[in-house]
Amino acid sequence: MRQSELVTMTTTANVVVQSLTVADADAILDIYQQGMDTGHATFQEHAPSWNDWDQSHLQTPRLGAFVDTELAGWAALSPTSSRCVYAGVAEESVYVASKFAGMGIGLMLLQAIVAASEEEGIWTLTAGVFPENEASMKLHQKAGFKTLGRRERIGKMTFGPLADQWRDVISFERRSDDPKFG
Predict the structure, then answer these.
(1) Calpha distance 119→134 (Å, rounded)
(2) What's the CA gap between 57 and 31, in Å, rounded?
């Protein structure tokens, strides 16, 4: 999928997946905070500033799923290392607004970011998921990610009902099967 292309798919509503712009910043951060509020999306308690979010994610691809004109979810990539040999490896994040949960938007976004990442020369995507986040676990498996293992007690929660508890994270990886990536 080229960044300039629009991908239209239908679930219970008309959904368009397209590149995000700075005009989507507030909605991106709002959806990110909704995920944080569940206590099962990240160790982070509060959404960062737009500048911090923007600086921590690759510039392309950044994709949003829009229902009419409303951002229903987003997918973006973060570098895993500054070393040049890892330039083709990125960590993906997919977040869906709570009001659009269960509509297939997460899978649509994950499949779109996989395709777009390969066009950007990225051959491996990684993800870390709390095992309690069953929807995200199933989403990654359905999208062809392999479970690499469990990182036990990798971090301690600092907020919410699980504050002061050590959390496990399941590591996922998806390697491109495109021959150009060897």
Answers:
(1) 29
(2) 16
Across 60-93, b (16+ Cβ under 10 Å) vs e yields ebbbbbbbeeebbbbbbbeeeeeeeeeebbbbbb
**Contact 58/16 with Cβ under 8 angstroms?**
no
Going by the DSSP 8-state scheme, the letter that residue 3 receives in this structure is T
The pTM of the full predicted model, rounded to 2 decimals, is: 0.91
Tokens of 126: 């990684």
State how far the Cα of 162 lies from the Cα of 182, in Å rounded to an integer: 42
Which amino acid, residue 73? G
Tens of pLDDT, residues 19-55? 999 999 999 999 999 999 999 999 999 999 999 999 9
Two structure tokens written together for 45: 């308690």
- 3-state class percentages of the chain: helix first, strand second, coil last, to nearest 5: 30, 35, 35
Would you say 50 and 110 are in contact if contact means Cβ atoms under 8 Å apart? no
| Other CB atoms within 10 Å distance of the CB of residue 106 | 25
Cα distance between residue 166 and residue 40, in whole Å:
13
CA dihedral for 159, 26, 64, 53, sign (positive or negative): negative
CA–CA distances in Å: residue 139 to residues 70, 110, 121, 151: 22, 8, 23, 19
Judge whether 126 and 80 are in contact, CB under 8 Å: yes
